[in-house]
Amino acid sequence: MADDHHGTDPAESDDKHGPPHGYTDTGSHALPGGVTVAVDGLQLEASETRIKPRESHEWTYQIRNEEGTAIRRFQETHDQLAHLILIRRDLTRFQHLHPELAEDGTWSVEFTLPDPGVYRAFVDVLVDGRPTTLGTDLFASGSANYEEPPRSSRVATTNGYDIELSPENIPAEKDLTLEFGFSQDGGVPQLEPYLGALGHLVALRDGDLAYLHVHPEETDPEDGVVQFTVRFPTASRYRLFLQAKPDGELITTSFDVQAMER
Predict the structure, then answer these.
(1) pLDDT over 90 (residue 122)
(2) How many Å is the Cα radius of gyration of the chain?
(3) 3-state SS assignment for residue 2
(4) Do residues 110 and 214 share a domain?
(5) CATH number of domain containing 15
(6) Where does 11-141 have alpha helices with state H?
(7) Which residues in the chain belong to E strands, given as ranges?
(8) Could you read off the pLDDT of 10-47 as tens digits, one per residue?
(9) 109 pairs with which residues across the strands?
(10) What distance in Å separates the CA atoms of residue 181 and residue 169, rounded to the nearest whole number?
(11) One domain for residues 134 and 165
(12) CB 220 within 8 A of CB 255
């Protein structure tokens, strides 16, 4: 599966509402991704995994095929060739970054790990039409003060915006529409596009940090509501990270849900 082309081929680029990312295969019934460094003949090779906390650092990596050749051709997803999600293993210190691709297939990105601890790096790409998420641990030296496990939450306030999540009951192993409603001082802000859609959602399973990355459904930006279709693969706790642009201001907020057996 070696490639001799760099970047994206517009004729093969996915649309804004293609298959969900964060899965080892397309479709909502596939297994979640990000729990392994290699899957489906692709492997993530990072330049290093030990990084000093609280210092800016340039991190590089390649995605190689079964022959060991660096992949150099990717397709856009969410208006980017790649998404890098960084999260500490207590489901805090969330970062969403966009690495740059060099002609030899090397990705580079600059970031700072804000505190000591073990972080998970999720690399989310589209290769030959297949959404793929690979993961590796990064180790920031020092004494880490991990926060308590997430508790269930349905309402969050960020930068003066109130966001409410529904429904209240979250079943596992079933396609489900999650709805996030925005308000501010009793009014409804207008949602502006972010990464080609009205919102961006990442869900991580407590424990192994299995990764779900889904596209929003079509919604009216003037209603202050964005919806996502997602399937939680098992009964467990999940932390949801929502990014959106109410009134043009990019905000990131989080919710905690318990997916229950049907």
Answers:
(1) yes
(2) 18
(3) coil
(4) no
(5) 2.60.40.1930
(6) none
(7) 38-39, 42-46, 50-51, 57-64, 83-88, 92-97, 100-101, 106-111, 117-127, 130-140, 155-158, 161-166, 170-171, 175-183, 191-192, 200-205, 211-214, 225-231, 236-246, 251-260
(8) 334 344 434 444 433 333 334 678 999 999 999 999 99
(9) 59
(10) 16
(11) no
(12) no
